[in-house]
Amino acid sequence: MSADKVRKLLASLHDDPENDKAWSSLEERAIEGEFAQPGSEAPAWLAQGRAELLARGEAEAAARLLDLEVLACADPPGKARLLRERARVLEEELLDDRTALAALESVGLLGLPESSPEAQACAEARERLASRTARWKDLLGAYRRHAENDSTDPALIASHLVSAAGILLQYKGKGKEREADTVFEQALAVDPGNLRAVQLWERVLRRRGNRWDDLASHLEKSAEAVTDLDARVHLLYRAGRAHAARRSDVASAERVYRRVLELRPGDNDATRFVVAILQDRERWDDLARFYEEQLRFRTDHSEDVGLLVQAAMTHWRMRNDPAAARPLFERLAQTVPGHTLAETFFREHGGPAASVPSAGERMTDPDVTVTHHGETEVDLEDAPTLMIPSEIATAAITAAQAPAAAPAPEAPPPAPARAMTPPAATPVAAPAAAPVSAPSVSPRAAP
After folding, report:
1. What is the pLDDT of residues 180-225, one digit of tens each?
2. Contact 309/278 with Cβ under 8 angstroms?
């Protein structure tokens, strides 16, 4: 598998950490030993992707990437460190002591000397987990007493209650789920914005596999209760994914992504997902309005070339409304003098030459900044990443290459309605990753 392919697969997990196709492809290559080849950059990409997933609260996906990292690591001490980290994630983030203990026990198969630092650290972690298994009833009672008697701090009370719920789920037999649910609900009633309580309850609901309505509701409600902006956004992304992928409710997913844009105007991922939803349903009027809304949100006097192109092309080709497209193409021509799409538009529909700077001119206004919506350059060759249909880009290229003296052609008939290619995804796991198309909104709709 090429380095570019690995980066694209990891980028797809940024959009959808539950992408089974991407996981299957990565796991197949890891099992075949491809990532363990000398000089492979895959271990570094996997580690970076795992760190970013953990930071976003995607603990299940992080644990799965750790499995791949273990397979990719040929160094026994390094493999032991990864197994210990995997055990930590399983224990602390996924409430799975049994699988964590199995990961630690597998370190003994690596042949490390018992006196080595990694072997000793893993042995200490095994002893702690074994002790918890033997003493779970005592621990459960202690956590409950602390929650009732030892503090008036909501965060500390919620922490004790969540620990009690984790013990219940892992060690109690009959009736454990109902009792654990009650304890989690008590913790969130005491401290609704407690991020650890929010995330652990989220993971329990997801693992149940049959409570998607409860999961989506919990994520949305919690996103309004937590205070950290990044945490709020990531909770909303997962709510959008639950709505679209598990509940088949794309309208709710769109509402959630628009809420992200209220919290963080211009957010690239939320913008892409709303665009993909509107394209998929061929809601061209809504798409044009959405692009123009995103342009209006800019308060720093900058021009986003990608958004300008998208808005202008949607009016021109998808809505067949050159009049609405004209002011956007004029802005594009002023921002990027000589831009091929702007020149093509004015060749077809005319325009005062004075309003369109020549290709050799550049903006000199110090208050205007040009950005490229995630691209280093904007050109017709970038059409797929700019959500421009291929037939439109081809027509524009053809017109741009026509002899200068040729008469202006008649305006073409409207292009047949079709979904445009979604924009580029921002890779998670590797620097300098090539853009990759966002996934379809219908099966999965969030990062």
Report:
1. 999 999 999 999 999 999 999 999 999 999 999 999 999 999 999 9
2. no
Q: Are 100 and 91 in contact (CB under 8 A)?
A: yes
CA distance 186 to 182: 6
C-beta of residue 77 within 8 angstroms of C-beta of residue 186: no
Tokens read off for 93: 């983030």
The Cβ-side half-sphere exposure at 404, using a 13 Å CA radius, reads 0
Tell me which DSSP letter residue 371 carries.
E
Helix (H, G, I), strand (E, B) or coil at 68: helix
Q: What pTM, to 2 d.p., does this model score? A: 0.79
Q: Residue 76 has which token pair?
A: 């026994």
In 3D, which of 50, 91, 45 has the Cα closest to residue 67?
Answer: 50
* Cα angle, residue 353 at apex, residues 348 and 357 outer, rounded to 5°: 105
Q: What b/e string do you get for 377-387 counting C-beta neighbours within 10 Å, with b at 16 or more?
A: ebebebbbbbb
- Confidence class of residue 367 from pLDDT cuts 50, 70 and 90? very low
Dihedral of CA 44/45/48/49: which sign? Answer: negative
DSSP code of 364? -
Percent of the chain whose predicted confidence (pLDDT) is above 90: 67
Please state, in angstroms and rounded to a whole number, the distance separating the CA atoms of residues 63 and 96. Answer: 11
Residue 179 and residue 312: Cα distance in Å, rounded?
A: 56
Residue 21 CA to residue 137 CA, distance in Å, equals 42
Reported confidence tier of residue 358, pLDDT bands at 50, 70, 90: very low
Average pLDDT over residues 30-40: 90
Which 8-state DSSP code applies to residue 382? G
Nearest of 381, 439, 392 to residue 417 by alpha carbon: 392
Residues 6+ apart with CB under 8 A from 291: 275, 307, 310, 311, 314
